[in-house]
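Archive maintenance. Older records in this collection stored only the sequence; we are now back-filling the structure field for every entry so that each record is complete. The fields below show one back-filled record exactly as it appears after the update. Entries are processed alphabetically, and UPF0041-domain-containing protein is next in the queue.

ARCHIVE ENTRY
Title: UPF0041-domain-containing protein
Organism field: Hypoxylon rubiginosum
Length field: 135
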Amino acid sequence: MAAFFKAVNAKIRSNPALSYLCSTHFWGPASNFGIPIAAVMDAQKSPELISGQMTFALTIYSATFMRYALAVTPKNYLLFLCHFINEGSQLTQGYRYLQWHHWGGREKAGVHGAVEEAKEKAAAVGDKIKEVASK
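Back-filled structure field:
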């Protein structure tokens, strides 16, 4: 049985394309592509949902592993591409976060006033409910 597995492994390793597909140089970045895909999808959501700390951490993480992907031998261009896309996505999210929370995006969108208005309406409705319930 061990001889069979040795023969199959030798056959796989003799073909460069199959050898690459069966290596961690392929499956590591392939499984890691969920992070940049999620970041790209999050670009469609409201900027008030963005975590500034997490975005900063993921920006540093991607920059570090972009460097690592080119430092290993052989160079792992798929890993570099994965983190390059994630770096761009996180920088975009970081800009959206700063725009929304620190550069007046919330005020320009009128959300702050709308939230206060909704709170006032909810309080008025609560008062009316109390009036009706007390009768």
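Update note: The chain has eight helices and no strands. The CA atoms of residues 39 and 56 lie 13 Å apart.
Entry marked complete.
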